Each structure stands twice: as structure tokens, then as C-alpha cells.
Amino acid sequence: MLQEFKDFIAKGNVMDMAVGIIIGAAFTAIVGSLVSDLINPIISLFLGGVDFSGLYVLLGSGEYASIAAAEEAGAAVFAYGRFIMAVINFLIIAWVVFMLVKAVNRAKPEAEVEEAPAADPGPSELDILIEIRDSLKNK
């Protein structure tokens, strides 16, 4: 059983997946910083200083200065600003991953495609009809 586990771990696919997950986690931190430190301030500038992550609707009574104060007090909040930020983060991450994959695919040498010999298509519909006609004549 231990040997099977070693064989499983040593397979290329498992190691590739592990490396991908580790790189992905590190990449997420970089993109998160890109969004929060660079993109959000630019978006906020165009929208007159609005910080999406602080947008919320209070579900219930009371008044709070910020979403953090409302959450600290235990009030129910509908934090739609955080959702907007999550969508923006996703779109930016998806775009960056798309660009990376595109760049990697361009950098890869194109694999030579070996042409497989054409398979025998068999008799055509016309050949079959002629054969049927000939067999009916012989009866």
C-alpha cells in the first residue's frame, strides 16, 4: 500500500497539479494586491472616491458609521460592495490567467502533427444502391 501511494505521488499529473495549486495561491496574493492597491483606487477616483467594499445595506434597525462597526455590533448587513469587489477580482484574475495562458501557448513550440493515413471510407451510397439493384435483377 505504501508503494502504491509513492507511485501515485510520483506520477507527473499529481506533481503538476500540486505545483499549480501552490503557484495559484501565490498568484492570488499578487492579483489581490494588484486589485486592492492599484485597480480599486483608480476605480474609486473615477467614481468620486467610492470604496465598493464599504457599501452595504443594514438589515434591521440601528445606525452604524461603517460596515465594520455594524458587524462588530452583531447587526445583519447585506454587504453588496464586497460582492462587487469579488466580481472585479474574479474578472481581473480571469483576464490575467487568460493572458498568461495565451503567452505560454505562443512560447511553446508547435507540435508537429503527424498525418494519420486516411481510413478506408468503405463503399459509397451509390455503390450500395448499385449492388442492391444488381442483386434484385438476378432474382
Automatic annotation (TrEMBL):
Q: Where are the transmembrane segments?
A: 17-35, 42-59, 79-101
Keywords of the record? Cell inner membrane, Cell membrane, Ion channel, Ion transport, Membrane, Transmembrane, Transmembrane helix, Transport
- List GO molecular-function terms, semicolon-separated: mechanosensitive monoatomic ion channel activity
Membrane topology summary:
Multi-pass membrane protein
| Pfam short name (any one) | MscL
What superkingdom heads the lineage? Bacteria
Q: Which SUPFAM superfamilies match?
A: Gated mechanosensitive channel
Which PROSITE patterns does the annotation name?
MSCL
Quaternary context: Homopentamer.
Protein name as catalogued = Large-conductance mechanosensitive channel
